[in-house]
Specification:
By secondary structure, this protein is mostly beta strands. The protein has 1 helix and 20 strands. A hairpin with a 5-residue loop joins strand 19 and strand 20. The N terminus is likely disordered.
């Protein structure tokens, strides 16, 4: 397992590099990291072995917070754990919806959460578990599981939301207005037949947007107009 985890980390760091540079061999990569996987959700230590186990696999999103706590989203609940596994924050899925897809701790102390279902929405939940902000989302599909995944709040106060079956990454204002939309089904990437479903979108410091395309197995960087300026194929 140790070697497999090291190889996974190297793949995450270097994308499509077919070999490790001479100046950086596998033995030199010494980082612990959080894993939200189908078989294990927790922290892997620098030695490549499990260091902290949440006790439940299949997470959707997760973070190791600056203070050492761990924030994790599963399909039905978001929880923040201390290293001793004490739950200090919890938000349960509203029964009107079907799934949760996002967890992000914000600078203001709120937690960003997305709910998928008949009322797809983005929420900011305060420390007491109360909804402080609610933004209606436009996923363009009734397929709850495929409406959205990892949304992120931008420095501007807007929200960046990937919509899988809409083949779009949309930027929303807090009022729910879509101010930009980046398609991922353009012919240059293989059209809709390539199934480039946007799963994760990250706004970079220079203003470009990094998008991970699940099923299509690609990572792309787009400029402010949605043009692909960098492409990486992921071999699984």
């Amino acid at each position: 397992m140790k070697n497999q985890l090291k190889q996974t980390l190297i793949a995450l760091l270097f994308g499509v590099c077919c070999c490790t540079p001479e100046w950086l061999q596998a033995a030199d990569v010494q980082h612990s990291f959080f894993v939200a996987g189908p078989d294990f959700t927790g922290i892997v230590g620098e030695d490549g072995e499990p260091k902290w186990d949440s006790g439940r696999a299949g997470a959707r999103d997760g973070w190791v917070l600056p203070g050492g706590n761990v924030l994790i989203a599963w399909g039905d609940v978001v929880r923040e754990f201390t290293p001793q596994k004490e739950v200090v924050f919890e938000y349960k899925l509203n029964p009107v919806n079907s799934e949760i897809g996002t967890a992000q701790r914000l600078a203001n102390g709120n937690t960003l959460i997305t709910e998928l279902g008949t009322k797809p929405r983005l929420l900011e939940v305060d420390v007491d578990g109360k909804v402080a902000v609610e933004v209606a989302l436009q996923p363009e599909t009734d397929n709850a599981h495929m409406q959205t995944r990892m949304a992120r709040k931008l420095a501007s106060g807007n929200y960046l939301v990937p919509h899988l079956l809409a083949f779009k990454v949309k930027e929303y204002t807090p009022a729910g207005k879509v101010v930009s939309s980046f398609p991922t089904d353009m012919e240059a990437l293989g059209g809709r037949a390539a199934k480039n479903w946007p799963f994760t979108a990250i706004r970079l410091e220079g203003g470009n947007t990094l998008v991970c395309l699940t099923n299509g197995n690609k990572v792309v960087e787009m400029d402010a107009k949605g043009n692909v300026i960098w492409l990486s194929l992921i071999h699984i």
